[in-house]
Amino acid sequence: MVNLLNSESMIAFIPLMEKVHKKDGRYYMIKTPIYPNYIFIKTDLDHTAFDLWLYQFCQNHNGIVKQLKNDKEGTSALYPEEAAFLEQLMDENYTVRQSSGMIEGSRIVIIDGPLCGMESRIEKIDRHKRIAYLKNELLGKSIKISLEILKKI
C-alpha cells in the first residue's frame, strides 16, 4: 500500500522503531511500526486537493482507508509541532533508532540515539521491555521508543 501511495507530489511511509527482540536465548535487532495500521503521507498538496486525490485513489483500489483530520475543515491530523517532533526522532529511512542511556540516582541520562537531549520528555521507562514512554502524544497515543539502559549509578 505504501508503494502505491508514493508519487511525485507525496511520500508515504510507516514510521518504524528499532528494538531488541529475544528469541531462543539470543537477542536480535528488529524493526516494528510505531503506529501499527497507520500510513503517514508527506505532501505539498493543500487539504482540498489531497482529499480529492485520496477519494480518487480509494475508488481505484480495494481496501479500507480512513483519513485522520483535526477538524471539519480537513486540517492535517498532525499539528506542525507534532510532525516536527516525529521527524526529529526519525532518520532518513523513517526509522527511530534505539537510544542508550543510564540512570543516575533518579535521573535518566541519554548517551546516544534520537532521545539524546530529550530526557525531560521521558515520562516512564520499562527496563525489562527496553522501552521509554514519552510525554508528547501523537494521534492521541503515547509514543513508545526503544531505550537500552546500560547501567544504573
UniProtKB/TrEMBL annotation:
Keywords attached to this entry: Transcription
Highest rank taxon of the organism: Bacteria
GO biological process, alphabetically ordered: DNA-templated transcription elongation
Domain NusG-like N-terminal: 5-68
Lipid metabolism found in the keyword field: no
InterPro entries (alphabetical): NGN-like_dom, NGN_dom_sf
One Pfam family, short name: NusG
Protein's recorded name: Transcription antiterminator
